[in-house]
Amino acid sequence: MLDNLQLLFVWAPIINLQVILDGIFVGAVFALSAYGLALVWGVMNIKNLAQGDFVIMGGYLALSLHYLGIPLPLILIIVVALMFVFGWGIYILIIRRIIDQDMFVSLLATFGLSLLLQQVLNLFYGPEVQTIDMKMGAYDAFDYMVSIPYSKVLSLILAAIITFCVVVFMKRSRMGQAIRATAQDPRAARVLGIDTDRVYAFTFAFNAALCGAAGVLVSIIWVIQPFYGITYSVRSFAIVTAAGLGNLPGVISAAFGIGLFEKYTGMILGTAYEVAAPVAILLIVLIIRQISMKRNRQPVR
Amino acid sequence: MCFGSFYHFGVTGPALAKVEGDTITLGSALSFTGKYATNGIHTQRGYDFAVDRINSTGGVKVGGKSYKLTVKYYDDESTPARGAQLAERLIQQDGVDFMLGPYSSGMTKAIAPVSEKFGVPMIEAEGASRSLFTQGYKYLFAVLSTTDLYLPGSVHFAADQKKSIGKSPSDTKVAMAFEGDPFSMDIRAGLVDLIKEYGMKIIIDDQLPADLSDMSTTLTKVKALKPDILIVSGHSKGAATAARQIDEMKINVPIIAMTHCESAKVHEKFPNASTGFLCPTQWVPDIDKKDPMFGTAAQWNADFIKAHPEYSSVPYQSAQASAAVYVWKEAFEAANSFDKDTVRDAIAGVEMETFYGDVKFGPDGNNIAKPMFLRQIGADGSYNLVGSFADLAYPRNVKY
What is the ipTM of this complex? Predict the structure, then answer.
């Protein structure tokens, strides 16, 4: 560990740049699925444990389309559309029935969905890890010490475009406004003529589509496997807990923060602890929240 | 007590004995479904191939009589608990007294205590974990090499390279990345002692998570510290992830060794980066070993492909499965009896050359006569046997 710290700050400070860049690439992907989770959580009070499995499912859809020889931008659009339809279907099948139930029902139902998705993906694609190799090469800087794969740059750009579209959509479109209204007060929204059932369905489908987009990016920059979904679920939960619900800039900055924290943890403590890093953040945030809430708690007079 | 022995008679006596008429029944719980299914089937084909060959060439001769072999299989669904249950069923209900192993170290770990409890000898071909042979089991024998022998060859090569340029092997800088599971940790343990013996420096020693999709931080360190050798083990997912990111980050370490190159298909997916990888294997068809039953290694290979034309290259899992059955034949004939303990002692005394390599069991039950082989991936995707540093393409000939 001491060696690693020395390496980072004394022997080869330039690799900090590599770690930071990797953290940013990672964060961009996390931001998408975390924002989807925040939406569903904030609007419908559903904690979707199948979030990561949606990501992996998007990745496998992308993989299938890639084998058909479809170019990447088109893959992204098709996967987003397919996942949107899939999300709408899941809403009608499962989520609609649990939306008014208590928290444990939603946790159980989405956990079951998560297991089902894993096994179905395993059945269709097998347990081997797979990846889309874009064969795009990498840009090398500082005497090969820092290498930036073009596929990661591309995924960052795509993530930025998607996020921009989401922001505009939520602010400007009729549906975006309806979603925000429903999140604030579903009853008032219903009084004002908003079909909240449709808003819920749309929100859940929108979340699935965002996860699908994240999955496409994951499959081109890392590897996917039917059972890898859980790590994306954990990261999404950590980010949303840290950022709060319904706060897009907060989610994005928390995503980058966790991405960086993860990479630095991996660098200093070893790759095995990378996955533990977001969980540690989750714990720390919960503890701090607890303490600050205690301070504000006052006896009723 | 009395009732117990009555029960014993009642169930195993008449209907299902291990040796009935002229047939010896071996029992095995194998994975035909679940995550080990592919390799479970490779194993079964190896067993069946050897059984057919032995039966068609006169069978097993015990007490002047010729017996045929047959194997009773159950599907363990790749679940250890189910495997242990089925082993008990084979022994208690089906009266099997002689076992063939399941597929994988994990399954063997679950089944070995059962066969041990009943004093039933088991010859296994697919469980390599060193820790199977530190439990003091008396009835467990393995024809394959244990995990601690998988990668030491690569460390020897790194030492030889230093010697060849007039330096001390202790100047070697080693980078290691291993998953935290028992199999990979066993492999690591086998290496660490050797590295210490040479006095080499371990400059990176990262553990990889089970759900590994990104090891770029480890590889960033590799880039900065420029080790002489990089060793990776984390099943096929580790090999696939490593190959992908070694490619992407243009890692230029002169010797890279990793397990599971073949099953992760690293060369098919990343032909450029995987050139020069060193990969351990239990057996290759081009070794110079032979026996009267199957002929040379190459001959076994050719005959097996004839029987199973769906294979373009035969997995070593099938070869070692055949070898295990062959050892059973030798042991029965040496024991000249079907008493479990006499047969057990005969197995312990077996010393033979087979197409799969030499077989001689150490006191712990593992095969101590057969070496592990290292193969290097060539630029054209061929796997070339590397016996010594002189055979090694050094440094890895790769152009990013």
Answer: 0.84
